[in-house]
Design a protein that fits this description.
By secondary structure, this protein is an all-alpha fold. It has 15 helices and 2 strands. The chain has a two-stranded antiparallel sheet.
Length: about 300
């Protein structure tokens, strides 16, 4: 695959990504004050799991989409935080011995290793509830109630059986099995892609884009980069640098899990990621010049090394 260059970006695009990460970190820190978390151990485990690590891709998508469409950053903080809380909940549960049984996440011990399995289950439960509570109650000045309700509906769909939970169920059932490329794409679009697509749509809705050609374009963009992101994850598990990834490579093969490279080969996986990248860029055409930053983010998703 020929490496794509970030459009209109360079150091400026890197600064935008860094600014999004810094902003969401502050928002999450404030939300996790949690005056009565039930126990200090649960509070510590929640903060350990959420703060100070991660790419923050999903909140970055909310910020960059919404800002590209004219939304003030203050209106984007709530949906950006909600989608990241849901994402971290999914990671904590996915790492459990009953799921992927991972020891490392983001370069340090997973929640159930740093604390214990019961606490990790509760962390995931609490973060899922908090993610929806934030989206229901958090400040979003100028956002109509019906738009907020649609955001909650979209996030619920991306989290449930049509999205992450359903995708994880397919993943668990596929261990030791041989899946077709189409079956793997379906699994990836649900387990990973649904929440990435939702992040784009939350940013659009917060900016007042609630239908029409632009929302359809952004939905397609989110779907394509969501699948591209997971295929790139599959590629990195085969050919990535563990020092950059913050976890060991080869985990999928060790757990007998079907992946895009195992079904189609590494070369075909890279080609498919490139095709999805191009389709995502093409989908942005209705946005004109406002799409430049999102196009840069598509480049980042496909070219990333971690």
């Amino acid at each position: 695959m020929t490496e794509r260059r970030v459009r209109g970006a360079g150091a400026n695009f890197a600064a935008q990504i860094a600014a999004c990460k810094a902003r969401i970190e502050g928002v999450l820190e404030a939300l996790l004050a949690l005056p009565d978390p039930g126990s200090e151990r649960l509070r510590a485990a929640i903060r350990y799991s959420v703060l100070g690590a991660g790419k923050r891709l999903r909140p970055t998508l909310v910020y960059l989409t919404g800002e590209s469409l004219g939304a003030p950053l203050e209106r984007l903080d709530t949906p950006a935080a909600s989608v990241e809380l849901i994402h971290v909940y999914s990671l904590v549960h996915d790492d459990l011995p009953a799921m992927d049984d991972d020891d490392l996440r983001r370069g340090r011990p997973t929640c159930h290793r740093a604390f214990d399995e019961g606490t990790a289950v509760l962390v995931g439960d609490a973060l899922q509830a908090l993610g929806f509570a934030v989206l229901a109650d958090g400040p979003m000045s100028g956002t109509p109630a019906e738009t907020r309700l649609e955001m909650i509906r979209l996030l619920a769909r991306a989290t449930g059986t049509a999205g992450m939970a359903g995708g994880q169920a397919v993943d668990l059932a596929a261990v030791g099995q041989t899946l077709t490329v189409a079956e793997i794409e379906n699994m990836h679009r649900r387990k990973t892609g649904a929440l990435i697509e939702c992040s784009v749509l939350l940013g659009a809705l917060a900016a007042g884009v609630t239908g029409g050609r632009e929302l359809a374009a952004l939905r397609r963009f989110g779907a394509e980069i969501g699948l591209a992101f997971q295929i790139q994850d599959d590629i990195l598990d085969v050919a990535g640098d563990p020092a950059l990834l913050g976890k060991a490579t080869g985990a999928d093969a060790a757990h007998l899990k079907p992946t895009y490279p195992s079904a189609a080969g590494l070369t075909a996986a890279r080609q498919r990621a490139a095709e999805l990248h191009d389709a995502a860029i093409a989908a942005l055409e209705p946005l004109g010049g406002r799409a430049a930053t999102l196009a840069g983010l598509a480049d980042f998703v496909v070219n990333r090394a971690s």
